[in-house]
Amino acid sequence: MSDDAQWICEACGYVYEASEGDPDGGIPPGTAFEDIPDTWLCPVCGARKREFTRMD
Under 8 Å CB-to-CB from 48, ≥6 apart: which residues? Predict the structure, then answer.
């Protein structure tokens, strides 16, 4: 999988982009979604990582 793939939260529509990361959530820019800890939560709605779907 590509490190620059986008992932969307099925609960609220937030899109995770590796180039931006989630600095407030402790995820630095450039972090591939696959490398985010399973304990990470959506910064908008608090959904779990498993509730995200890859956007193609």
Answer: 38, 41, 42
User: Taking the model in full, what pTM does it have?
Assistant: 0.88
Cβ neighbours of 9 (radius 10 Å) = 21
Residues across the chain: 56
AA identity, residue 1: M
Contact 21, 28 (CB under 8 A): yes
- The amino acid that residue 14 corresponds to is Y
16 touches 6 (CB < 8 A)? yes
Q: In a structure prediction context, what are the per-residue pLDDT tens digits for the chain, which is 56 residues long? A: 446 789 999 999 999 999 999 999 999 999 999 999 999 999 999 999 999 999 98
> Residue type for 38, please?
D
